[in-house]
Amino acid sequence: MILSGGLRVALRIFTVVVLVVIYVPLMLVVLNSFNADRTFGWPPEELTLAWWELAARSEGARAALWTSVQVAALATLVALVLGTLAAMGLRRTKFFGRNTVSLLIILPIALPGIVTGIALQNAFKTMLGIDLSLFTVVVAHATFCIVTVFNNVQARFQRLGGNLESASMDLGAGPFTTFRLVTLPMIRSALLAGALLAFGLSFDEIVVTTFTAGSQDETLPIWIFQNLFRPNQAPVVNVVAAVLIVASAIPIYLAQKLSGGNAEAMTGAR
Amino acid sequence: MPNAISVRGLSKHFDDVRAVDDLDLDIADGEFFSMLGPSGSGKTTVLRLIAGFEKPTSGRIQLGQEDVTDRAPYARDVNTVFQDYAIFPHMSVRQNVEYGLRVKKVPRGERRERAEQALATVRLDGYGERKPHQLSGGQRQRVALARALVNRPKVLLLDEPLGALDLKLRREMQIELKEIQREVGITFVFVTHDQEEALTMSDRIAVFNEGRIEQLASPVELYEKPASTFVAGFVGTSNLIEGEVARAILGEAGRFVIRPEKVQLVGPSEAPSADARVCVAPGVVREVVYLGSTTHSVVELDAGTTVTVAHHNFDRSIDAALERRDQRVVVTWRRDHLVSLGGSDPDPVASPEEETA
Questions:
Q1: Which of A130, A138, A196, B131 would suit a FRET pair with B51, their CA atoms being 20 to 30 Å apart?
Q2: Do B314 and B257 belong to one domain?
Q3: Which domain holds residue B196?
Q4: What does the UniProt entry say about where the protein is found (chain A) (predicted)?
């Protein structure tokens, strides 16, 4: 596209401003995790690794981290199975409600977390009579984690068309062999990209989690939220936040690389 | 000769559309059989029905002696070469070719040997370790062919396999395909919309129109003796002479077809007189089109129709033809070159639209 010189400069400045607004605060968090001053005075007078040592020894932070990893892994697993099945089901059938079903699957990612949270809490407690626990958190997270897997797999199916599987059947392979030797290898990277995004979504979820977790269950975001305003815990929170920034950048970067461009991978991100 | 494929009363309806309409068809063992027709004429649907990708609305399909109508694609002894080749992109050329043998649990050693053979048949020796994305369109087409041939199916189905290739490569592959077919002796069922391709390769051709076969004949018969206006128009260029024009020029009513290369163009003074063996019609040259090996002249006849006259450019110069533009000429042809399409009734297929139009 050919742009006039003035427009090009304006776009460049605009891009820089946006990136600065996003990333300077994040860098501040990382920097403050080394700030010797307990009240995070600016500019930092002295740097220290003390907070990092303290955080490494924090039982609460470690337990919360482990809980979050478990919840995210399970929610991702559920999303992988159900999301793939949904994408395959909608692809093979041509019933007229197909677009409606597709919309209904994608919708949870757009619903406000607080609505999803309240609705699920109600359903679990009053309708189903299930006590809130990590299990209910996993189910709640899976409702929106499915979307990333479903979107990625569906986009891949659309790009591939159906002839590869027809060819496999034509060459004598039954449906299961075809899935194992042709379908799965073709959607593997889409599955991985969807799974990484799903994991990321679940890992930092706080709103839905608040409504669906039992009183004793503490995921990492909830732990951070509860410790943020305790003066002696603030430095540790900073360290945990710094770790999370790095940890969440990796899956997004991988997901983008795997799907060969951001268009496909990011369609499910919120 | 025994039949490789027998189709009886085969129909496939998509909602209201009759893609295939009550089709009967026998394809002989070892034959190179083409299904020719415009897009939407049902030829590809017939192929997909034989392969098992579509379920017929009604009718039976027999492969050899076996009724396969209700069998899944993987339980039929046919293989398909797809229009887009459908080569598995995550496998090497060899893995692609071995695929059919692998899923049938053929031992590794035999698999390898047969894959090598198949690759040699399509002139791709030594390409086994390449990945599909490293191949050209023509090479991918050959891989698809090898992947199908390696299974030694009773019948090989080819769905416009040359459609994506450029003209020169397509011509080469046409001849090569014919050679390969003769070599392996497998029945080929070839779908194409390119009449020249069908004429070049086939033992027999079925011309499809609106889900039915208009004519089933050898290439020569199809070209020299088209059975309907549709076939005459679809296979090669033809001049249609009918109604009043036929009465005026030929002295009899009816519908007739004459091929452009069978018509001669002479000056008014050199014109022969019409008799029982020669037809003569005066007119004016409206357009002269130079096509390299031939020149086409479009002549508007006084009798009220236009005919195309083709002549080979034996001389370097076509000035003589070009000078005839807007000149009065006489076109002549031998009466026995005329093909009669029967009575003067309008084409039954096209009639409803024509009457309301």
A1: B131
A2: yes
A3: 3-224
A4: Cell membrane
